[in-house]
Amino acid sequence: MRQDCFLLSKIDKSMVGVPVLAQKLVSIQANIISKSLPEIERKINGKLATNMAELNRQPQHLSSVAEALTAFMRILSSFKESIKKILLRGEFDEYPEDKEMHCTARLVEMLDQYSNELHSKNFDEKEDFLTEEIKALQETNGVGLPNFLPRHFFLNVLQKRVKEVALIPEDFVKRVWNYIERIVMEV
């Protein structure tokens, strides 16, 4: 231990101490900054150019109703074109990373889900398929014309089947409407 202290005391004073450590840390930090600064500057300049282009598209001064209306119509036209690209043509170059904005894919997913919901109501695979209807038909047997269902029985069966699937289209339309509303608000 004593020998270690002796060896440490032989180190040049210009290489030890808090000021030397601080100077070394400042040098390391400056080196790191100088390496990452060009990339940061490139990103800042890119965002600045994008924002300047957007600013230049805006009218400088709206001194009349005609200028304000022209600016509004230009903005509306740009909005309409964006909506067409996203919803109708399936282009998503304006939002490449945002999967929610890839509308054609999301709408296909919603249609698939809707189809699956309708198929889940498949009546042919139910064990008690038409048992209630057969019992009701047997009760009304002989009441009407041969080979014709009584009107009230037919309406009863039809109403029951319609009630089983009636909410599925409504839910589907609500989901699509809410999705399109979110997209329009985002654009």
UniProtKB/TrEMBL annotation:
GO terms for cellular component: cytoplasm; membrane; microtubule. Residues 9-185 form the Dynamin stalk domain. PANTHER family: DYNAMIN, INTERFERON-INDUCED GTP-BINDING PROTEIN MX. Pfam families: Dynamin_M (PF01031). It comes from the Eukaryota. This is Dynamin stalk domain-containing protein. One of its GO terms (molecular function) is GTPase activity.
